[in-house]
Write a structure and sequence with these properties.
The structure holds 2 protein chains of 2 kinds.
Chain A lengths: L3 E8 L10 H16 L8 E5 L3 H5 L4 H11 L6 E4 L5 H15 L5 E8 L5 H8 L15 H16 L3 H15 L13 H5 L3 E3 L2 E2 L8 E10 L11 E10 L14 H14 L8 E3 L5 H11 L7 H6 L10 E2 L4 H4 L4 H17 L12 E8 L4 E9 L2
Parallel strand pairs in A: 2-3, 2-4, 9-10, 9-11
Antiparallel strand pairs in A: 1-7, 1-8, 4-7, 5-6, 8-12, 11-12
Helix pairs in contact in A: 1-3, 4-13, 7-10
Chain B lengths: L5 E8 L3 E3 L1 H8 L3 H8 L4 E3 L6 H16 L6 E7 L10 H9 L6 E5 L5 H14 L5 E9 L14 E9 L5 E13 L2 E2 L8 E2 L5 H20 L8 E4 L6 H8 L4 H5 L4 H4 L6 H12 L5 E5 L4 E11 L2 H4 L8 H6 L2 E2 L2 H7 L9
Parallel strand pairs in B: 2-14, 4-5, 4-6, 11-12
Antiparallel strand pairs in B: 1-7, 1-8, 2-3, 6-7, 8-13, 9-10, 12-13
Helix pairs in contact in B: 1-2, 3-4
């Protein structure tokens, strides 16, 4: 296997993009990434596109050749492949792209993620995203994603004494960072009181504990590290790409408060990259719900099991310590276009590692981690990135 | 463009029954009181089983005719804007014209443009009157709108109407200018044969209501060379109690300027009648020389704006006939959901 580098990144603004179509945002992100990589489409070997539910959301399947076609590349006859894994579709597409370049099958590939959630009513969108849980065991009985994560939160509070305020501090931090991100869905700061007093969604989770339904697209260009210097002065090495899966239904898990899929994917990723959690300065984690962020920092190994709440509330991940989490604003503030999330995380990390994150820049960041989760954790994907000096 | 026409007389009518958001919420297992706070709605009006857009229009027009001392035979045009005309085919306007004694020498038609059909009818009358094709034209906005049971709309959709007689003589409120802003924005709709409307959720906010109302208000003030400071009153379409206040603040209006024109918190969203009843409430206490900005909104979507100024004639206008809007706002009889369900035909009856 050869070393793989990220050569270019691009993304659209995230939000309620009512005046823009799926193909339009997909193309914009892809072209931005190609321009950033200074790569011609003639150099490309393949396109991978992460997407959760275009068929249900916009009545369009077969979307990878669609984006290729409307990018003016139908004549290239490139292989264009959609990758689906719920909310982790984007990171899974990146995993496939990494395998393709690392194996030598292709030299240069574009990995995109795109989702258009606001073309259907909110209730319909919530029904569709809940399809990433187990239909026969969970959603057919009325369970929803926030409902299931609400149960995880309740158990976490019971087992570890996690408080409502600690959960709320995740959302406050997310909006603080989102306010500095021009692409973010939400650019307003929120107070702890606002989170605590928001309407309940699935107690203990309220409206501000849940990431929004967003539209958006992101893309990256991957290529062999040995040829990266031809295209960029700051190639970012994709040091590890690991996927781990678990039971679909939450109640079949070993325990409710640990995502074994994240534990394993992270462990394998650190082994692959010869790194440890303490080496990471910037991390983009899945905070689809405030409780998911606590599980992420615990299960990746940044803090001990049960210590996520107090660590967040003390501001340990806000840049004062050695680790900054979700400088993009995360899913909560940057937005949550499901299939695009895993790729957008990489866009933020690459900008951090290149030193191009402007107001959000973490000084001296050289190692970054991305964690992307689907459903209630049946799939976790962990990627590690390093600045190459 | 100085129009020589304006409002000669007006009247409003709101059915007497009321229901609270808390009462609706308890049926559906939701916190209705919180829903009401969120929407800015304390109560909404409910029409009795024998009331519809035609009876409501007739009540409001009768009040307007008596107040203005106008012979119904002098009416040359009668238009009713509504999204709840009792018949899909057969005009409401002919029934109302006959009921008030305005037939047969007049033109009549029903208008539909979601919540702004009433203001569109005012514009049409201004044109006819301005062109001296008719002496008086009647524009009515009236609705008995329904939200599907359990839907967010059920907390706001109510009933009411207001009639405006437009003319060139004895004008109590001169319309300096009217201007519209229209685009194809499908935020709210009801297809032929459907009982309840559908809506685009959050899409009904920013790209729909806020964009059209804000742009239309900006454009008419730009054309008139005015700013928010030049108006004593402002009346917006008011689908709930929150949207008009937010748009008013954005445009630089104070709560005092919005106060008289904001009626939805107390009677719910009367759709085509919402801005017209707000305007009627302003006129109920206005003195000569007060300037009023009215900006309606209809889903689909468009806004009609009016730059209005009361004249000396309003000091002589006899308001003693008809019911003042304030009485409709503060009066009424609260009913339980069961009665509401019966009145609104939500109970499935046996037989044919």
């Amino acid at each position: 296997m050869r070393d793989v580098a990220v050569l270019g990144v691009g993304m659209t603004k995230f939000g309620e993009l009512w005046d823009r179509s799926f193909r339009e945002i997909g193309i914009e992100a892809g072209f931005q990434a190609l321009v950033d990589a200074k790569l011609s489409s003639a150099d490309l070997g393949a396109l991978y596109l992460g997407n959760m539910a275009s068929g249900s959301l916009i009545d369009q399947e077969h979307i990878a050749p669609l984006i290729l076609d409307y990018s003016g590349l139908a004549g290239s006859h490139l292989p264009a492949i959609r990758v689906e894994g719920g909310g982790a579709s984007g990171a899974l597409a990146l995993h496939e792209g990494w395998l393709a370049v690392a194996s030598g099958a292709y030299d240069f590939v574009v990995v995109g993620g795109a989702e258009k959630l606001t073309d259907v009513p909110d209730t319909e969108a919530n029904r569709i995203i809940s399809g990433t849980a187990d239909h026969e065991w969970e959603t057919v009985f009325g369970a929803t994603l926030p409902g299931l994560w609400g149960m995880v939160a309740r158990r976490h509070m019971h087992d570890f004494g996690t408080t409502r305020e600690e959960l709320a501090s995740v959302a406050v931090r997310a909006h603080e960072m989102g306010s500095k991100n021009p692409n973010a869905h939400f650019r307003n700061r929120i107070s702890l009181e606002a989170v605590l007093h928001a309407s309940p969604v699935a107690e203990p989770l309220g409206m501000f504990d849940c990431a929004p339904l967003s539209d958006g697209a992101a893309a990256v260009v991957l290529g062999p590290l040995e040829r990266a210097r031809k295209f960029t002065d700051t190639p970012i090495r994709l040091a590890a790409s690991q996927v781990a899966c678990d039971t679909m239904a939450l109640h079949h898990r070993r325990e409710l408060t640990t995502l074994d899929s994240t534990v394993l994917a992270a462990k394998r990723a650190f082994t692959q990259a010869h790194r440890a959690p303490a080496d990471v300065q910037v991390a983009e984690i899945d905070d689809g719900y405030t409780i998911s962020a606590l599980l992420a920092v615990e299960d990746i190994g940044f803090v001990a099991k049960g210590a996520g709440g107090p660590s967040y509330a003390r501001g340990e991940f806000s840049g004062q310590g050695h680790l900054s989490v979700n400088t993009s604003g995360g899913l909560k503030a940057q937005g949550r276009p499901f299939g695009a999330v895993g790729v957008a995380q990489v866009v933020e990390l690459v900008r951090q590692l290149r030193g191009e994150a402007k107001d959000r820049q973490v000084s001296g960041a050289s190692v970054g981690l991305a964690q992307n989760v689907a459903g209630t954790g049946a799939t976790s994907v962990v990627h590690l990135f390093e600045r190459v000096n | 463009m100085a129009l020589e026409a304006g409002i000669v007389s007006y009247g409003a009518y709101v059915p007497r029954y009321r229901i609270t958001p808390a009462e609706i919420g308890q049926v559906w297992g939701t916190d209705g009181a919180a829903m009401g706070l969120g929407l800015g709605i304390e109560r909404k009006s409910v029409p009795a089983p024998d009331e519809d857009t035609i009876t409501i229009s007739t009540e409001s027009l009768r009040a307007a005719l008596v107040r203005g001392a106008i012979d119904p035979q002098e009416l040359g045009a009668l238009y009713i804007g509504s999204e709840s005309h009792p018949y899909a085919v057969k005009p409401s306007s002919t029934v109302v014209a006959q009921a008030v004694g305005a037939t047969p020498l007049l033109t009549a038609a029903d208008f539909e443009f979601a919540c702004k059909a009433g203001t569109a009818a005012i514009q049409t009358c201004l044109g006819l009157v301005g062109a001296k094709m008719v002496r008086y034209g009647v524009a009515i906005g009236a609705d008995t709108s329904q939200g599907a049971p359990g839907d967010a709309l059920e907390y706001s959709a109510s009933a009411g109407g207001a009639a405006f007689i437009i003319g060139r003589e004895r004008v109590i409120a001169l319309v300096h200018r009217t201007l519209s802003y229209t685009t194809d924005t499908p935020d709210f709709w009801r297809r032929e044969g459907q009982r309840y409307p559908s809506h685009g959720g959050r899409f009904t906010g920013e790209p729909a209501y806020f964009r059209h109302v804000t742009e239309c208000a900006h454009k008419i003030m730009e054309a008139s060379g005015t700013t928010s400071k030049d108006y004593q009153h402002v009346v917006f379409h008011q689908p709930n109690g929150k949207f008009p206040v937010r748009v008013g603040k954005t445009l630089g209006f104070s709560e005092a300027q919005m106060k008289k024109g904001l009626v939805t918190p107390r009677i719910g969203n009367t759709y085509s009648a919402a801005a017209p009843i707000g305007l009627a409430n302003v006129l109920d206490t206005a003195r000569a020389g007060e300037r009023i900005l009215v900006v309606g909104y209809g889903s689909g979507a468009g806004s009609d704006a009016f730059d209005i100024e009361t004249t000396e004639e309003i000091e002589r206008f006899d308001r003693s006939f008809g019911t003042p809007v304030e009485e409709f706002l503060s009066g009424g009889v609260n009913i339980p959901y069961a009665t509401y369900a019966k009145f609104r035909g939500k109970i499935h009856m046996g037989g044919s």
